[in-house]
Amino acid sequence: MTLLDTFDLTYPIVQAPMAGATTPELAATVSNFGGLGSLGGGTTAPEVLNDHINTLKTLTNRPFMINLMVLSEHESTTLDSEIPAWLSKYYQANNIEIKLPERPALNFSEQLQVLYDNPVPVASFTFGIISAEQVQRLQDLGTRVVGTANHPLEAKEWADIGVDAVCVQGVEAGGHRGGWLPQSASDPLGLLTLISQTRACTDIPLIAAGGIMTGQAIKAIQTAGAELAQIGTAFLTTDKCGINDIYKQALLDASENKRSAETRLTRLFSGKQARGLLNDYLRDFAQYESAHELPPYPQLNAMTKFLRADAKKNFDPEHQSLWAGQGVALVRQERTLELLERLVKES
């Protein structure tokens, strides 16, 4: 059985579950079209996540996916690092008030409980791996389960606990890296290499993510051994996406040569590797990128949220996290349906 059959899809298109950017309306539009719409729920409080799922169920009767970030209780509750001196100095210089939360991230087990209580067609997981028992419980509820991997060994670990598919995320991908093994950060693999190496160690069905912007790219990853294409950056500049106008304009400017389309893997915003457009923040503090200088994720993420919020309030793209993949030069300002129709026509 192919993943098109498993997920009951018409087209091999998965809209990436980008936390903070995806909306129920975006996901429903993709699902109603015949792809797999997704909602990034990792930064969403359980009660709000439950509401979003109910909204999705009213907007579409087609399959959709909810994505959660796998964090341990220790990771989500521990805030024991000092704010880096350079970040503290920036806050003081710009008169930005900060008040660190009691915990740096939401409780993963409480979010997962929402998926047990209000089952969804597909659930995907990133930043870590869940247990075989958790996979089985979701599947018993009728939920298909997808893991995220940046390295073949991560894909094999997911396969070994019985998931339905693995999304392999190449180094080209925008936003946060989904892997958790040291190899995924120390030696990030390009998508085609990642697909071929993963195919060599497991026959788990694959979804491919990273720099996919066109129908031709969808065909290329299918030829390489993946069944579905997960596309993120291309959706960011469409009408149903929830990012702020300044972020969206920066992406469009990159596609129109009004600003550099150079992207960079960085830990400076969150403590975990993520790819975004190069901006002043990444330039100014590049010297602090090394691992020993930075608090880990999600602690640094909790510390920089005031910087990002201030930049958003002041319409400043240079201190926002402008997550984008290496294909960002190909984004267009268009309706979500237009993008979907174009991808199908090209593939």
Please describe what this structure looks like.
This protein has 347 residues and is an alpha/beta fold. The chain has 16 helices and 11 strands. Strand 10 and strand 11 form a beta hairpin. Helix 2 runs parallel beside helix 3, helix 3 runs parallel beside helix 6 and helix 8 crosses helix 10. The protein starts with a helix and ends with a helix.
Pick out its properties.
three-stranded antiparallel β-sheet, 16 helices, globular
Q: Specify the structural class.
A: alpha/beta
Topology pattern, helix = H, strand = E: HEHEHEHHHEHEHEEHHEHEHHEEHHH
Could you give the order of strands across the largest sheet? 1-9-8-6-5-4-3-2
Characterize the main sheet. Answer: 8 strands, parallel
Q: What's the count of strands?
A: 11
Tally of helical runs: 16
Outline type: globular
Q: Estimate the strand proportion.
A: 5-15%
Arithmetic mean pLDDT:
97
Low-pLDDT ranges: none
Helix content: 40-55%
Straight-line N-to-C gap = 21 Å
The gyration radius over C-alpha positions equals 19 Å
